[in-house]
Amino acid sequence: MTENEHEHDQVYDKGRADRLAELLRALAARIQELDSAGQLLSGVPDLLQLMGDARTELFITKSAARTTHGDRREPPDRRGSAAEGLV
Q: Is this prediction's pTM over 0.90?
């Protein structure tokens, strides 16, 4: 990956937001297709791939937004996460 490509990955712009929206739409469409065909559960491997792609882009978009607009994260919730309650 060139330095210019790496810099583009760290920029939050309309193109990145559009890519994320398209991945989420593709996931939603695939879920509807599988459900309509009665194959929702058998399509799990395909859905996991699509979810992974969307998750990766979401992570990149979130990181790029922080880089572009500054880190504006909220302080952590003191109540803990649901996963912590399972321990």
A: no
